[in-house]
Write a structure and sequence with these properties.
With about 280 residues, the chain is mostly helical. It is about 85% helix and about 0% strand. It is found in: Cell membrane.
Length: about 280
């Protein structure tokens, strides 16, 4: 790796670390971080495949209250580095990513604990009206989250490829195989959690239709993606047209009712005139 690649990798690592607490640009997601690392190292295909596989694992990972989810930023960056630099398989990359995510979880808890100090300092500066100092407290806190991923990434980059390969080969097959199986189970569990959260009854037929197509056709993932896009567009068009029809019907009903009321009022006036 040349110096430009090293700088870019560290930059992506820092952005991913900050993204893990900002959650806006989703730069910490495996599909984004792994793809960027693969692009920098000249192997986008491996980055996308590994990122997509890890993304399926991380679908159900989220911070709930004080419970911290495993860290996807550290796992994505370092596992992609190791897979591409040492030419290991995607399965071994998944086995590496699982303990890295757990280590990143401990690191982010440690960093967030330190950040509490800067939060209280920000409160003090707010009472004094020092707004620029409050901004610096935010910058320092984000910088610590960036360093949380950049420093381990820098250590991995500093190690020689042969040393990394030696460490990976020294891991017993029982452990790596077990982690690969566990990673596959996590993929299924994460996807199931997402489906439960997106429990929309009117969309379930499309979900079942996808399984039928997968079982009885030879569609690849590109074909399924195109089919899903077409069905989504059709669903939106039908829903939009249905809403328009209902709105027109309601408008027509209101107009008829108003016309009926006007006719009744006119008849009443005519009857009053005749009585007079």
């Amino acid at each position: 790796m040349n110096i430009i690649q090293i700088i870019l990798v560290l930059l992506v690592a820092g952005i991913a670390g900050m993204g893990s607490v900002l959650d806006e640009a989703q730069t910490h997601r495996p599909l984004v971080a792994c793809t960027l690392i693969g692009l920098i190292l000249g192997d986008v295909k491996t980055g996308i495949i590994l990122g997509g596989t890890l993304e399926m694992m991380a679908l159900g990972w989220m911070n709930v209250g004080l419970a911290m989810a495993p860290d996807t930023a550290l796992a994505s960056v370092i596992s992609t580095l190791l897979v591409i630099n040492t030419h290991t398989s995607i399965g071994e990359g998944i086995a590496i990513a699982v303990p890295l995510a757990a280590a990143g979880q401990a690191l982010t808890i440690f960093v967030r604990t330190i950040v509490v100090f800067f939060v209280h300092k920000g409160d003090d500066f707010a009472q004094k009206g020092r707004y620029r100092a409050i901004e610096w407290m935010h910058v320092i806190a984000l910088g610590l989250q960036a360093l949380r991923v950049m420093i381990p990434t820098g250590i991995v980059l500093a190690l020689s490829t042969s040393a990394v390969e030696g460490v990976l080969k020294s891991i017993p097959t029982v452990i790596t195989g077990g982690l690969q199986i566990g990673g596959g189970i996590i993929v299924v569990v994460g996807y199931a959690m997402v489906i439960n959260m997106m429990d929309v009854p009117e969309l379930k037929p499309f979900f079942y239709l996808g399984f039928l197509f997968a079982a009885f056709t030879k569609f690849n993932l590109v074909g399924f993606g195109g089919l899903g896009l077409i069905l989504a567009l059709l669903y939106l068009q039908l829903e939009y047209s249905g809403k328009n029809n209902r709105a027109q019907t309601a408008t027509a009903s209101a107009g008829s009712a108003q016309q009926g009321n006007s006719s009744s009022a006119a008849d009443d006036d005519l009857d009053d005139d005749l009585d007079d």
